[in-house]
Amino acid sequence: MQIAIYILSGIGCLLTASILIPQIVKVIKTNSAKDISTIMITINISSCIFWIVATSMQIATGFNELQPALIVVNSISLTCAVILLTLKLLHNKKGK
Hints:
single chain; mainly alpha
């Protein structure tokens, strides 16, 4: 049963970490970010930061062995969200 939990967690981590990559690729290919919501990206960034902080606090108290994976996933998601927000802001600046 433990192996199934690790496999399902790994799949979930990969999917979560890669969720914004298609948007980043689309913005780069089309050279347009007008359809990307700044509010959505900001909420995503905030969510990742809260997850990283909460998970770090849980690790510090010895709460759960799966917590390091959550930090990695949310760090990757945070990086993707920051890249997407940067692209959005750069494209908004070019359009004005």
